[in-house]
Amino acid sequence: MPVMTPQQKAYAQYQNNKVMTASGPELTLMLYDGAIKFLNVADYAIEKKDVQKAHDNLIKTEKIIDYLRNTLDMKYSVAQDFENMYSYIYRRLIEANLSKDKEIVAEILQHMHAIRDNWIEVMKANHIYVKEA
Fold first, then answer.
1. Half-sphere exposure (CA, 13 Å, Cβ side) for 50?
2. How far apart, in Å, do the first and last CA atoms of the chain sit?
3. Which pLDDT score, from 0 to 100, does residue 18 have?
4. CATH code of 76's domain
5. Looking at residue 17, what is its pLDDT?
6. Is 133 a member of any domain?
7. Alpha carbon separation from 54 to 19, 86, 97 (Å, rounded)
8. In a domain, 131, yes or no
9. Predicted confidence (pLDDT) per residue in 94-131, tens digit
10. pTM score
11. pLDDT in tens, 15-69
């Protein structure tokens, strides 16, 4: 394992604190942001014919979607809508990974950006602070 510089250690601690102090809605937003980041990396890796990097990042995105699915509270009717959406995205991720298809990745990215943007609006409507990028 590589040795971390003091700056890398400080950043890792900052990131850890950020996650540990985040509210539930903020954690969900972080997961959406992470999925988008991993999809962007996978897209670039597919373009560069880096099959392993594409695979690894699509798997990371699958794990995020799987986590989001497993945390749904099905006592709320809207949870079934999220389940349907996440289930579709998960299937498309598997298809993208099998074929290393940039068009499928682009479609998933479009969905994830829409979900993320809607989540931010929900947070704002509920007076939850959202840091603008």
1. 11
2. 32
3. 52
4. 1.20.120.340
5. 54
6. no
7. 26, 20, 8
8. no
9. 999 999 999 999 999 999 999 999 999 999 998 887 77
10. 0.84
11. 555 555 568 899 999 999 999 999 999 999 999 999 999 999 999 999 999 999 9
CA distance 58 to 40: 10
The answer to whether residue 8 sits within a structural domain is no
Compute the C-alpha angle 60/112/27, nearest 5°.
Answer: 65
In a domain, residue 18? The reply is no
User: Which tokens hold the place of 81?
Assistant: 């809508």
Distance of CA 28 to the CA centre of its chain: 9
Residue written as token pair 């880096």: 50
Q: Looking at the 3D structure of the chain, how many domains does it have?
A: 1
State the Rg of the chain over Cα.
Answer: 16
